[in-house]
Write a structure and sequence with these properties.
Strand order of the largest sheet: 1-2
Structural class: mainly alpha
Shape: flat
Strand content: under 5%
Distance between the termini: 51 Å
Order of helices and strands: HHEHHHHEHHHHH
Number of strands: 2
């Protein structure tokens, strides 16, 4: 039996509305991406302009430990100085602009949530920025300890010549690893708000969670030394315990 024009129209309207909704989301995503990229590019230019003091600040702890062993940082070719500056500018620009593009990310996710699930975003969005900054700060403080521990095994008659590119890569990976690991409370609170976990479940499996945290810390820390791994795992375990309290109060 053929469908009436009214039924056909009723069937087509929802599909058209869904298509419009998808297009609106894609348009919003495009706008947010363009704004984020624009801010990141601007931040990269700022870091490029202030490259010399920034480079000195981030290499000084390592150079200090190197000098105790008669070592130094080296460039292997004449173009490397330019590419290292570009790499530092890109990495630095992404980190400096992190508060903006993190807020943009949360702003894009929020419309897909229910009003009840959307409420904690006002708290989670700034918390994401603060925790990422805390993770990067801790990584910067931990690195000299890791350098000191590792260089203690260098024989006294050996001179260490550290390639600058490898050092910059290590810094970027270390900061990113610590920054992302410190987002654990945000992830747990979000999962609790959407009903996947709760405080009772987190309390019940806290021992297993600590074991998983130790494994994750061992995997994500790029230097693979025990000092850095422990300095990443211990705060993460502490943040997990704090998250239990936060989840119980917010759910």
């Amino acid at each position: 039996m053929a469908s009436s024009p009214e039924k056909i129209r009723k069937q087509r309207v929802p599909r058209h509305e869904r298509e419009m909704e998808v297009m609106e989301h894609l348009s919003e995503l495009r706008a947010r991406l363009l704004r984020s990229v624009g801010v990141i590019v601007a931040a990269c230019f700022i870091v490029w302009y202030y490259y010399n003091p920034i480079y000195h600040f981030f290499t000084q702890p390592f150079v200090h430990e190197l000098s105790k062993h008669g070592g130094r940082i080296i460039f292997s070719n004449w173009l490397e100085g330019f590419f290292v500056r570009m790499k530092v500018s890109v990495y630095g620009g992404i980190v400096v602009s992190a508060p903006f593009w993190i807020i943009e990310l949360w702003g894009f996710v929020a419309p897909a949530l229910t009003p009840e699930e959307r409420k904690p975003i006002r708290f989670l969005a700034p918390l994401t920025v603060v925790l990422f900054a805390c993770g990067v700060t801790l990584a910067h403080l931990v690195l000299p300890l890791a350098f000191r521990w590792a260089m203690a095994y260098i024989p006294p008659d050996v001179q260490l010549l550290q390639h600058v590119n490898d050092y910059i890569e290590l810094l970027a990976k270390m900061y990113l690893a610590f920054g992302l690991c410190f987002e654990l409370p945000v992830l747990l609170i979000f999962l609790a708000k959407v009903g996947i976990i709760d405080g009772a479940l987190m309390r019940q499996y806290w021992r297993q969670a600590v074991m998983v945290i130790m494994i994750v810390a061992a995997v994500v820390t790029p230097s693979n030394d025990p000092v850095t791994m422990l300095m990443c795992a211990v705060p993460m375990a502490f943040l997990y315990l704090i998250s239990i309290v936060l989840v119980e109060r917010m759910t």
